[in-house]
C-alpha cells in the first residue's frame, strides 16, 4: 500500500536514499563517532595524566570515602544527563591512574542512580492527567528504586569484602588475556593515540603548551559527550524499526527474560539506557504496557549501558580501565540476580514505585521534593559531610 | 527476543492490518446480509461473524498500540499526520464490522428481509454496498486519489437515499415487525457507507478534514 500525498509529510519524504544506503551511511557515521569517542577517552586520560600529583590528590580526596564516590557519581550523571559519559570519564580516570578501581566502583554505582533522572523528568510530561501520570511516574521510579536497592545491598558488600572489585579483577584477568588491546599496544590504541598526538602538537604550535593538560581534559570530556550524543542519534535512527518490532513483541507476548535481553540489546545498540527507559514511560503511561512488563526491559537497559565503559576501556592504557568497566557489568548483573529471579524480591521495586506514584498523584509537591531531594540535595549533602 | 534483529517499517505493517480489516468487513457484510436475506443459516453465519468481528476488534487494538509505539520510538521523526489518520481509519473499519453484526442481529431476531415486497430494492442496496466495499478496498489499498474522488460523492448520494428510506419506514403505517427492521437495515447500511467514505477521505483529505470530504479542500487540489 503506497501513501498518497495527503498522507506524506516532510519527515517521511526527507530521505531520498534507498533504505539500505541510509542504514549503511548511518552505521558508517556511528563507527566514525565511536572512533571520536575513543579519541575523547584517550585525550581525557592523557590530560589527566599530565595534570600532576596535586590534581590526583584532589580528585582522590574528593571521593576518598565510598559514600562520597557514590554521591559524586550521582551528581556528575545528573549534570550531564548520561551515565555513559560519566562511566567513560571514570574509565579515563582509572586508566590514567588517578582513581583506583576500589574508589571508582561507588562512583559507577552512583552513575547508575543518576541516570534515572532522565526518565523521571520524562514522566513529568504526563502531569496533566492523573491516571497517566501515576503510571508514568511509577515506570520512571521503578528504575530509581531498583538501582537504589541494588546499591543498598551491594555497596556495603563491596565496602566490607570488595566483592565486586574482586569479581571484576578475576574477569579482567581472563578477558584481558583474550584481548590483545588491554595491555601494551594494539592497532586500535595506536590509531586513537595518533589524533591525540596531533592535538598536542597543535596546542604546542599555538603556544598553549602550558595549559595542555587542562585543554586535553576539557576536549576529552567534550568529545566523549558529543560523540556519544551523535552515536545515540545515528543508532536510534538505524534501530527504530527493530526497536518497534521488539516492543510490539513484548506488548503481544508479555515480558520476562526475553524482554530483559531486548532491553539490553536495544541499549547496547543506541548506547543510552535513558533512550530505552524513556521509551517505556509513555507506553506504561498510556496503559498499553504494564509496569511489571516494563521492569525487565529497564533491567536489561542497566546491563546494556555498560557497553560504553567497556568500549572506553579499549582506548585506555591501564588494564585497570577494563577492570572498572567490568565492575560496572558485575554490579548491574549482580543487582539483577539479587532482585529479579525471586518473585518476592522482584515485587519490591515495583511496590515501592507504585506507592510513590500513588503519593505523587495525591500530593504533586512530592514530585519536586523527590526529584530535587533524590538527585541533588541528598548527594550534595553526602559530599558535603564526606 | 529475535524481534529486535528484524527490521520493519511499522507503518507498512499497520497498513497491511488496515487492508486485512477492510477485507474482513467484506466477509462480515456477506455473512450478515446472507443471514438476513435467508440465504445462510443464521447460527452458522453468526458463529463465523463472531470470530471475524473479534479479530477486527483485536486488530484495532493492536493498531492503536503499534501507533503508540511508533510515535514513542520515532519521536520527532514520526509522521504524525499519518498516525492520526490510521487511528481514525482503524476506528471506522471496526465500526463497519459492528454494523454488519447489527444487520445479523436482525436475522437473529427472526427477520427475513427477502420475504417482503421490497425484496428487489433491498437486494439492490446489498449489492451496491458489497461493490462499494470491494472498490473502497482497492482504492484505499492503492491510495488511488482519482478513484476516491469518484467514489465519495456517490456514497454521499447513497447515504441521503438510505436516510430517505429510513424516514419513510419510521413514518409508515406498516406493522412494526415490517417497518422497524427495514428502518434499522437502512440505518445500518447508511452507517456502513458513511464509515467507508471516512476511510476513503483519509486518502485525499488533510488530517483535520478526514471524514469531511470537500473536493476543493482535498490535498491534491490545494494548489489549484
Description:
The complex is a heterodimer of chains A (386) and B (224). Chain A is an all-alpha fold and 386 residues long. Chain A is 82% helix and 0% strand. Chain A has helices at residues 10-13, 19-49, 53-62, 66-80, 83-95, 101-114, 117-123, 130-161, 163-178, 187-205, 212-253, 257-270, 273-285, 291-304, 306-315, 319-339, 343-362, 365-385. Residues 10-14 of chain A have low confidence and may be disordered. With 224 residues, chain B is an all-alpha fold. Chain B has helices at 10-36, 42-74, 80-108, 119-142, 145-170, 176-204. The mean pLDDT of chain B is 91.
Secondary structure tally, helices of chain B = 6
Shape of chain A: globular
Mean pLDDT of chain A: 86
Based on CA atoms alone, the radius of gyration of chain A comes out at: 21 Å
Alpha-beta content class of chain B: mainly alpha
Shape of chain B: globular
Helix content of chain A: over 70%
% residues in beta strands of chain A: under 5%
Radius of gyration of chain B (CA) equals 19 Å
Number of strands of chain B: 0
The helix content of chain B is over 70%
Provide the succession of SSEs of chain A. Answer: HHHHHHHHHHHHHHHHHH
The proportion of residues in beta strands of chain B is under 5%
Largest sheet of chain A: none
* Largest sheet properties of chain B: none
The parts of chain B where pLDDT drops under 50 for at least 5 residues are: none
Could you give the topology of this structure?
The complex is a heterodimer of chains A (386) and B (224).
Chain A: H1 10-13, H2 19-49, H3 53-62, H4 66-80, H5 83-95, H6 101-114, H7 117-123, H8 130-161, H9 163-178, H10 187-205, H11 212-253, H12 257-270, H13 273-285, H14 291-304, H15 306-315, H16 319-339, H17 343-362, H18 365-385
Helix pairs in contact in A: 2-5, 2-10, 2-11, 2-15, 4-5, 4-6, 4-18, 5-6, 5-11, 5-15, 5-16, 6-8, 6-16, 7-8, 7-13, 8-13, 8-14, 8-16, 8-17, 9-16, 11-12, 12-13, 12-14, 13-14, 15-16
Chain B: H1 10-36, H2 42-74, H3 80-108, H4 119-142, H5 145-170, H6 176-204
Helix pairs in contact in B: 1-2, 1-3, 1-4, 2-3, 3-6, 4-5, 4-6, 5-6
Amino acid at each position: 500500500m503506497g501513501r498518497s500525498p495527503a498522507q506524506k509529510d516532510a519527515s517521511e519524504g526527507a530521505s531520498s536514499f534507498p533504505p539500505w544506503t541510509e542504514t549503511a551511511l548511518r552505521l558508517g557515521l556511528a563507527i566514525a563517532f565511536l572512533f571520536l569517542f575513543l579519541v575523547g577517552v584517550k585525550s581525557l586520560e592523557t590530560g589527566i595524566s599530565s595534570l600532576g600529583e596535586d590534581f590526583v590528590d584532589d580528585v582522590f580526596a574528593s571521593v576518598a570515602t565510598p559514600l562520597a564516590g557514590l554521591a559524586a557519581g550521582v551528581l556528575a550523571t545528573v549534570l550531564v544527563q548520561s551515565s555513559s559519559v560519566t562511566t567513560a570519564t571514570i574509565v579515563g580516570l582509572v586508566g590514567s591512574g588517578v582513581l583506583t578501581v576500589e574508589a571508582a566502583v561507588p562512583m559507577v554505582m552512583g552513575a547508575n542512580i543518576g541516570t534515572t533522572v532522565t526518565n523521571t523528568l520524562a514522566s513529568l510530561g504526563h502531569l496533566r492527567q492523573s491516571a497517566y501520570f501515576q503510571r508514568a511516574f511509577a515506570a520512571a521510579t521503578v528504575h530509581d528504586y531498583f538501582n537504589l536497592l541494588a546499591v543498598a545491598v551491594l555497596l556495603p558488600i563491596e565496602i566490607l569484602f570488595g566483592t565486586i572489585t574482586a569479581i571484576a579483577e578475576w574477569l579482567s584477568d581472563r578477558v584481558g588475556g583474550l584481548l590483545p588491546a588491554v595491555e601494551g599496544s594494539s592497532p586500535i590504541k595506536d590509531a586513537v593515540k595518533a589524533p591525540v598526538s596531533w592535538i598536542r602538537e597543535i596546542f604546542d604550535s599555538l603556544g598553549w603548551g602550558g595549559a595542555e593538560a587542562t585543554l586535553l581534559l576539557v576536549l576529552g570530556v567534550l568529545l566523549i559527550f558529543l560523540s556519544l550524543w551523535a552515536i545515540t542519534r545515528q543508532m536510534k535512527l538505524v534501530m527504530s524499526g527493530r526497536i518497534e518490532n521488539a516492543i510490539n513483541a513484548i506488548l503481544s507476548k508479555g515480558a520476562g527474560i526475553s524482554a530483559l535481553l531486548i532491553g539490553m540489546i536495544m541499549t547496547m545498540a543506541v548506547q543510552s539506557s535513558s533512550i530505552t527507559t524513556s521509551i517505556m514511560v509513555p507506553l506504561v503511561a498510556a496503559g498499553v504496557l504494564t509496569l511489571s512488563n516494563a521492569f525487565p526491559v529497564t533491567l536489561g537497559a542497566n546491563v546494556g549501558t555498560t557497553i560504553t565503559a567497556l568500549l572506553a576501556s579499549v582506548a585506555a592504557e591501564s588494564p585497570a580501565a577494563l577492570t572498572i568497566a567490568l565492575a560496572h557489568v558485575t554490579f548491574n548483573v549482580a543487582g539483577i540476580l539479587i532482585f529479579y529471579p525471586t518473585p518476592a524480591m522482584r515485587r519490591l521495586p515495583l511496590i515501592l514505585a507504585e506507592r510513590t506514584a500513588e503519593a505523587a498523584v495525591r500530593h504533586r509537591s512530592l514530585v519536586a521534593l523527590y526529584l530535587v531531594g533524590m538527585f541533588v540535595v541528598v548527594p550534595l549533602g553526602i559530599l558535603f559531610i564526606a | 527476543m529475535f524481534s529486535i534483529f528484524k527490521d520493519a517499517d511499522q507503518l507498512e505493517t499497520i497498513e497491511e492490518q488496515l487492508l486485512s480489516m477492510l477485507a474482513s468487513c467484506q466477509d462480515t457484510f456477506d455473512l450478515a446480509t446472507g443471514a438476513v436475506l435467508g440465504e445462510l443459516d443464521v447460527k452458522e453465519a453468526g458463529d463465523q461473524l463472531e470470530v471475524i468481528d473479534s479479530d477486527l476488534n483485536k486488530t484495532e487494538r493492536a493498531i492503536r498500540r503499534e501507533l503508540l509505539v511508533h510515535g514513542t520510538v520515532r519521536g520527532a521523526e514520526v509522521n504524525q499526520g499519518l498516525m492520526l489518520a490510521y487511528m481514525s481509519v482503524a476506528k471506522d473499519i471496526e465500526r463497519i464490522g459492528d454494523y454488519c453484526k447489527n444487520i445479523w442481529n436482525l436475522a437473529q431476531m427472526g427477520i427475513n428481509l427477502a420475504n417482503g415486497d421490497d425484496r428487489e430494492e433491498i437486494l439492490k442496496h446489498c449489492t451496491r454496498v458489497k461493490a462499494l466495499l470491494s472498490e473502497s478496498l482497492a482504492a484505499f489499498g492503492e491510495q488511488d486519489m482519482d478513484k476516491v474522488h469518484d467514489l465519495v460523492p456517490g456514497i454521499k448520494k447513497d447515504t441521503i437515499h438510505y436516510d430517505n428510506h429510513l424516514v419513510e419506514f419510521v413514518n409508515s403505517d406498516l406493522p412494526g415487525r415490517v417497518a422497524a427492521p427495514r428502518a434499522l437495515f437502512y440505518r445500518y447500511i447508511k452507517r456502513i457507507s458513511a464509515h467507508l467514505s471516512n476511510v476513503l477521505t483519509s486518502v485525499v483529505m488533510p488530517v483535520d478534514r478526514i471524514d469531511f470530504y470537500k473536493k476543493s479542500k482535498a490535498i491534491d487540489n490545494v494548489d489549484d
